[in-house]
Amino acid sequence: MEKACIDINELINVFSNTQGSIYQSDKLNCFYIDFGGKFARYNCLSLQKLKKVVENIDVEALLLNTTKADFELVTFNGCEHIYLLSALEIVALKELLQGTFTMFKLNYMVNDCLNRLVY
Amino acid sequence: MKDLMRIKCLISQDIETLLNQQIKKEAHSSSLYLSMSSWCDQNGYDFSADYFAKQSEEERVHQLKLFKYVLDMGGNAISPEVSGIKTDFAGFREVFEDALEAEIAITQSFKNIASKCHKEQDFVTMEFLNWFLKEQREEEYKARRALELFEVIGEEGTGRWEIDKHVNKITYSEQ
């Protein structure tokens, strides 16, 4: 999906690093990953799946393996998007996703304290 | 900002992973008991074969109960791959020793999940786990009692035949 189609002002920046950002749309109940030149939409389940796929990539083994290029295809069944990432980009995407999920936990705690536990 | 992950799912990712691991362990136990049932049947221990077949069914029920819970809470329940099931046993006693060991491993695993639930204050899953913790009392008791028959009756002479006859009669009562 092209970035131009979406009103960026309606999105909430969940987490960013030097390589990209992850946004949340409260209106559409979905997430957008701006990374590696792509602006891709994900739902909760597919974002969790992407995190698992990225975390399971052994970057060290990728770098030490002299028989293949230091690139990895990142996708999963049912995912519309494919990333061809270098080892450094994988590290960056891993960091981006971990940071995002940490923000989700923080948001959960904040929601608990400010809304759910004060009725 | 909406808490989309929480809206979608009641349990955390860590708890979901642990429950999926437990689903796999229950599936493994079910297959192991079926394998024990097969070995007992082939070696003429009919009552024990029935006992282990029933145990296998129970483990399958446990697996499905966990599976349903993960799905009901909005999680991703994973149908497990089961491999490496032991099919040959050195003797009648070893079957029961392995059965007890398997139950101890399952109890430990549930304790581990319960500990994580306490840490996360996930009392909903904790309440769900209580049924399993109680069930493990019975499972371990039965497995231990069965093994004790080897000491009480002894394996000499018609001992194994007697043990086989008594295995199916082991029951657990809280009172």
TrEMBL record, chain A:
Protein name: Uncharacterized protein
Source organism of this protein record: Pedobacter fastidiosus
UniProtKB/TrEMBL annotation, chain B:
Pfam assignment, any one: Ferritin
CDD domains listed in its UniProt record: Nonheme_Ferritin
Localization annotation: Cytoplasm
Record bears the keyword Oxidoreductase: yes
Keyword line: Cytoplasm, Iron, Iron storage, Metal-binding, Oxidoreductase
EC number annotated for this UniProt entry: 1.16.3.2
Keyword presence, Metal-binding: yes
Predominant localisation class: cytoplasm
Function: Iron-storage protein.
Name used for this protein in its record: Ferritin
Annotated organism of origin: Pedobacter fastidiosus
